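User: Fold this, then the next.

Assistant: Folding the first:
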Amino acid sequence: MTWFEALFVLVAGMGAGTINAVVGSGTLLTFPALLAVGIPPVLANVSNSVGLSPGTAAGAIGYRRELEGQRGRMIRLIPASLLGGVVGGVLLLTLPDSAFHAIVPVLILLGCLLVAFQPWLSKWISVPSHAHRGAWWVIPAVFATGIYGGYFGAAQGVLLMAILGLGLDSNLQRMNGLKNVLATVVNTVAAVLFIIVADVDWLAAALIAVGSTIGGFLGARYGRKLPPIALRVLIVCIGILAIVTMVF
């Protein structure tokens, strides 16, 4: 990797870390960047997962104030994300890329629609204001999203925001903080799995790790200031970009 290519990957990592902290879908920056510098797809996917893990952790730390009072939710939802990340990582190492290719854009589109119409849908879904545990389907939905996140992860945040926004009674910024924690769990457990059993391009992973950590703190600092409507619009726009990128 030349110095220019290394800088390119580092900058892509910064952008991905920023986007992941605010919305999700940072993989759509780093994965193509790794392919562009000549890293094969599977190796790029594995190295990308390892590199982005510190960045998602930085985003979660940056949203620590929004996580206050959500300890019970994290205790209930983290195991689902952890198990999902393990399953997704195993699938990446055992199945061809085509296995999820057809359904991934559909899932992202569904997530965008759910986020966009969440204020209206919430009126029809029974989640009482005093129900801190949320709807019954949140845990299995988080588990399924963890599988997807461990396998590839692009727009994992969009899907999580849709699930948490509909199934839990809380404001969007608090859900964003919780989303960052769950995404960190998925990325970390998948990264550990890949480090143990798969080949990793350590230079690429290190560059993305440094860039995404910087970006994660930047995204948390400025993303938490966005009003709910702006955050919702940004989530939908990133999701649509993810669909267009993956389809075309």
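Now the next one, as you asked:
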Amino acid sequence: MPRGRYSLHDPHDHTPLGEEHFHCATGPSGWRYVSQLTTPSGDHAGSVDLTLDDLGRPIRLELHAGGWQVRGAALEGVTWVRTDPTGAHATEGNVPAHAFTGASPAFLVATARLLRPAPGTGAVRTRLVAFTPPVLAPRTLDQSWALVNRTAHPTDNGPLTADEYQVNDLETGEQHTVHLAGDVVLSAPGIELEDLETPPSAFT
């Protein structure tokens, strides 16, 4: 069960945004990721709880940030309920998309798991609903993911396979690179792996 800490920063001006303390695990029915977020001063800033089935589809999502809450799942596309900080109002949404995304590193692992692009086969396109702090407002976006490199690194626990993905925003044309090892993000724009207590899990 990988357990560790990511530091989060603005990918454009590198302003620190806080940290995400996480643990995640694979199982016979899929993968689960749970984390607590803190501000740069160490105050609680929210949480992430994401469960995928064995095909990488989100079967349960719960996000908290700035008093807002989102609960969602893959249902006739993706469906969610967003509740305001007072708890007095809840709005439902449904979009013909494949999965969710957001600021958490969990969503990068989840998208790679869902798409599973093979080396040398080109990019795979997907439609996602993004929820980003501090208000978790939904936004639909289209991305393409291509697996451009796969490298095995020797470790004390056997070879560790690192995958390099090229991710394109199909609306803006912006490109960025994501490096994953199993169910852990090694690096991505705005995300750095600062501490990892146990090795990444390998998806079968």
